[in-house]
Structure formats: structure tokens, C-alpha cells
């Protein structure tokens, strides 16, 4: 039987080079003990010597070692070691034997340990090299930042990801599920589909080591964004009359299609993709984001009206896809941000020249086929995945691809690009090459999975439509190119068009609503992220609907007003005299007496009424074209703003002096041993108060993973156990250990306020 052994605990880590650390008997007693996933970059101070694009945090070289034991029976099994992600250029040894290397930081890779393991102690050694930190346009992290597992099987077994299930057709009466399989030394295979209660609702069998089987399900319960129902698919490999291997995974029965004239359909129902792009970090946690944290963030995005996620711009952590299956998100699964051409990497601030040129393009020629296959094979059984994206903005003009069709070109973020960089240069790579590579990648994906279309997020479709790049795709993704929707729909009949990356501007959403043939959009972004920042001391991108700790911003309220139906209203106050919409607002009522404030009420209602200290300031029509808001100019006076629409109300009060410190636990899904807490400063009336520095202390087997306030220019090192609140709150992430005894976390302010909470391991 296949047995997966979690290998996340009890790793030893050394930052820097360590000669001969691959050697099994190497003395590693002085190394630091860490639990995976682990990102060493966020353990260091922010510094301008590193790159702005990756958040002013370091890379370097790091070594990991793990001692583990095998019984005699286990050592005689076939054993595979799998890393779900290491950033980057990993080299791996087992018991002093070199296994090989893996370049890309975002794809899973495995090694066969069978010839090298032994009964008793075994030692894994891994060296990760990330010396060129300006190798990305966003924060990457460094180290073993995803899970590691050991897989033990008999000789008779299914291949790794050797079972692939696809729903061929489904409605309320019947579903047909095609299963393709690969196995070794098996005589027969059997497949069972079990409902959520464990009852078998369909079964099939086939003979041989590779082939197909068909499951027929009567009255299936279909997976959808509103009701993400999951069955369990079990495969058994038989030999000599007995079951020698068994594998199980969740499976959602659903059908979907994209239509060039009517957009997207899920289970026969036409719907819009209300999507967001997400990067893979979570502020102080870096790239080592626990599933619990993803669950909390996804549930907030769901409440915003979001139903789709784009993994920008790399294969995601498997935990994210598992949660999208469970919570009902549709996913565009993206492979690469670079192919053969290296993009500009900002290291002194966004668009500050000159750039640096490192990145995946250096590894693409040798590794792209393996990396693309890794993503598709791993993710093709997820109900949530509906699109494969082979690249993001690969066709970015003059970065580095050029064409004689355009003498001078500016892209989405080229305001400061020197003229020489914008002009056609015959010595640069020709954009026609992209069509050739796109065709190769699309064909490879089709071989691995024929059930989903292939797309690419194009930054310059006005050129890619002419070079053949767009023709190599099944579906065209347009980044910030809403102005071409109507023209291209007429010019290229039969083409499916999707907004693969879009601004928060309400006009971009109207372009989706007003055109039935546009399948949807993906906002840039769902959540703030480290890196891609304007320059020191700002170290993050603030493009998200949620801030870096996962708290709602006015952009969230705007999208909720546009994307949801349950009555809602939120008050936001402009920080500046000029109206920048939700970008220039905050959920805080404070100021100087008489100072004019711009107050917005975001709502999906038709009208909104605003009150200040019990006085009505009038009722106004809500402008959906302005992001579902009504706006007032209000002379400031301390007190309380209230907003009302039919079925909903909101309140915003001037923060008072902090008199209490309370702790609130964020609710997500119990997926592991990490808990997210929010320390909140409140005044006498229970309202969010002013900001103070908070110190966090733990007692017992409890590890503080980090503190986050979402402030873009807070340069307090993430390794510290102190951080200021923002808007009266501070988020803490803690890992609960398994040792017995009291486990308590305490928060203290400089003014003497304290709050403590005991924590227990999840059952």
C-alpha cells in the first residue's frame, strides 16, 4: 500500500555555505532546528542592499539536513522523496549519495531513494542557492518553503500521479467519469467513487499496467462555486489476487465550457468569473504560508464575491488548490513569468533604471518541459482548476521581445522607460519566436490533459494577434486591454477572450458586465504582497483588496458592492483632497475640527443615507459606475458616522484612548497546527483605538511565526517579537507544539495593557 510520511518536522538549518554538509556523518549539532515550510529570507532585516522587487530581503545559500529512521520493513519498500517546492537551485543528497538537482523554485520534484536507504538512521541533505535576489518582479522567498513527504510503496503500485480522472459529462441524472491510469507490475486495477458519507456510488475495473476505465454515477451531486461537493476517488492495484496498492484523492464532478459569444458556463449555468490574482507570500510568513492562513484569506475573498483565483505567476502551493476545491474557487493555474527572454528586474524601486537581468529564463531551455509537466500532472485532478496558463506577460514590449511592426512601444508600466528601451532594435529577440514556443507549450499541456483549455496572460495582444502567439492558445487572456474587447471580438470570431489581469477601476468590470462574450476578470490583486514596491522605505505592493495581514481595505468594500447581492454597506474616508476612489481611503474617522473630509459609502443598494452624530447628512443615489458608492463632503467633527441602506448599516467612530487589549482568533479551516490571532486595542466604548507598539511573549511549546500590521513602510524586522498596531490591530501567527503543558501567548503594550490566551493543539 502507498504510505505518505510527512517530513516537515525536525529539520536542521544553516544559513551560508557549509563545506561537506552533504556527508552523512557531518557534525550538524550546532545547526538551528526548523519546521517546514521554512523561508529564511523573512528572518533577516530589510536592507537597501537587496532588491526592491523582492521586498528588500536577502537570498543567499542555505543548507538543510534531516535525520530520520526506517524500520527493516520500511527500508525494503520502494521509497520516493518529494519536495513540493524549494526556492531555488536545490541539490539533494541521501546518506552521502548525490541524487540530483532542481532549478525552478515553484514546481514539485522527487527522487527515488530505494537504492540508498538503510534500516536505522538515514540523513537527507539539501543545498538551496539563491544568490541573485533581483531575479524576480515580486518576492520569492528562499529555502524549503513547501511541504516534504516520503512515499513508501510495494513493487506493484500506481505511478506518481498515475491516476487521472475527468468528468466527460454530467447533469442531475448521470455523470460519466473517465479514468486513465499508469501502474507498475499490476495485473488488474479497480476504482471506486465514494460520496461524502463514505458510500460507494460507482465502480469500475481494468486490466494491465496502463489504460482507461469509465465510472457512471447516477444522480450525481455536482461541484460548484456555491456548493463545492467533493467525492473520494479510490484506486486499487491488484496482483496475485490481492490489493498491493491503494491511492485516494478528493474529486469534484463538474463540467464547464468557454464560449466565444457567451463567456463561461459551469454545469450548464452561464456565469462571470469574478477573480483575483494572488502571489504566494503572506507578509511576515514570507513564502512559507500555512494552509490555515490561506483558508482565512480565501474565506474573506469569498465574502467579497470572488469566485476565481489566478496563481500569479507560478504553480501554487498545493495547500492553496486543496482549499480552492473545498471552498469553491475556480483557478487559472499559471506556469511561468519568463520563457527564453529575461525581463527587467527592478532593484532600486519600480521602473527605476537600470534594471538587473536574472531569472527563470536562464533555466527555461533546460527545465521548462519538466516544470510544465510537474504542474499539470500534480494539479489535473483538482476540480477547481479550469485553465492552464503557460505564461504571464511574456509578450511585454521590448522586454526583451521586439517587432518591426511597431517602431516605438510602451507597455503597462513603462512611464519611466528610456527612449532607447522603447524603440525597435533588430538585435533583440524577435516577437515571432513567442508563437513557436507557445505552440510547443500548448501541445505539451494537451498531451498531459485534454480536458482544460490553455491560455496565456498577454500584455500586448495588439501585437500577439499578428505574430501568431494568440493563435497558439485555446483562450486569449488580456492584461489591462479592455479597450480591445469589442474590436477583437469582431475581428477574431470564435476567439474566447478573458480579462486575465485587470485594475480595480470599476470601468474594467463594466467592460465585463456589458459584454456577454467576456468570461470574467482577475483583479490585480486580491491581497497585498511583498516586493514590486515603489522604493525604499516602502517594501510591498499595495494593490490588494486585502492588506498584507489579510484585513479588508476600501478596495474590498468597492468590490463587495459590485460583486455581491446580500445587502451591505461600508463607510470609507478619503485621506486626500483629490478623489482617487477607494485607493485613497481608509476605514477611520479622525482629523481636525472643520477639516473637509470626503466620505464614501460603498453598497449594493440603490441609495445610501449618511449620518454624523445623529444628524442626517442626506440620502443619495448610489453610482454603480463609480464602484457602487455615494460620496459626501463632510466637515470633520469627532464622533460617529453612520450609513444605512435597505437591509444593512455601518458605523465608523473617532478612535479614543486605548483602555483595553483583547485577542480575537481568526476562523478558517483546521488544516494543521498554526493559529492566527488578532490583538486589538479598544477604547472605553469598545471601538478600535489609537496605535501602540505591542510585544508578544509565549510560554510553553508555542512558536511565534511572525507579527504583521500590513504597513508598507514598517521596517521592523520580522524576526522581532514586537510591532506597532495599525488601525488599532496587529495580527500574530503561532505554531502550536505537541508537547504537554501550558501554552500561553501574551500581548503587552508600552502603556501597560495586557491580554493573554491559552492555546490547545487542534484535534
Description:
- With about 775 residues, the chain is mostly beta strands.
- It is built from ten helices and 46 strands.
- The protein has an eight-stranded parallel beta barrel with strand order 21-22-23-24-25-26-27-28, surrounded by four helices. Strands 3-2-4-9-6-7 form a six-stranded antiparallel beta sheet.
- A hairpin with a 5-residue loop joins β13 and β14.
- The mean pLDDT is about 95.
Number of helices: 10
What Rg do the Cα atoms give? 27 Å
Distance between the termini: 26 Å
Oligomeric nature of the chains:
single chain
**Overall strand count:** 46
Characterize the largest beta sheet: strand count, sense, and whether it forms a barrel: 8 strands, parallel, barrel
Structure summarized in a few sentences:
The chain has 763 residues and is mostly beta strands.
List the helices and strands and how they pair.
Blueprint: E1 3-6, E2 11-15, E3 32-34, E4 60-70, H1 72-75, E5 78-83, E6 90-94, E7 97-102, E8 109-112, E9 120-130, E10 148-153, E11 157-170, E12 174-184, E13 188-194, E14 200-207, E15 210-218, E16 231-239, E17 242-251, E18 256-259, E19 263-266, E20 269-271, E21 273-278, H2 291-303, E22 308-311, H3 318-327, E23 330-334, H4 364-379, E24 385-392, H5 419-422, H6 433-448, E25 454-458, H7 461-467, E26 475-479, H8 485-491, E27 497-502, H9 506-513, E28 518-523, E29 529-535, E30 538-541, H10 554-563, E31 569-574, E32 585-586, E33 596-603, E34 607-612, E35 615-621, E36 629-635, E37 640-645, E38 648-653, E39 660-665, E40 674-682, E41 693-699, E42 702-708, E43 722-724, E44 729-736, E45 744-749, E46 754-758
Parallel strand pairs: 21-22, 21-28, 22-23, 23-24, 24-25, 25-26, 26-27, 27-28
Antiparallel strand pairs: 1-10, 2-3, 2-4, 4-9, 5-8, 5-10, 6-7, 6-9, 11-12, 12-15, 13-14, 13-16, 16-17, 18-19, 19-20, 29-30, 31-32, 31-33, 33-36, 34-35, 34-37, 37-38, 39-40, 40-44, 41-43, 41-45, 42-44, 45-46
Helix pairs in contact: 2-3, 4-6
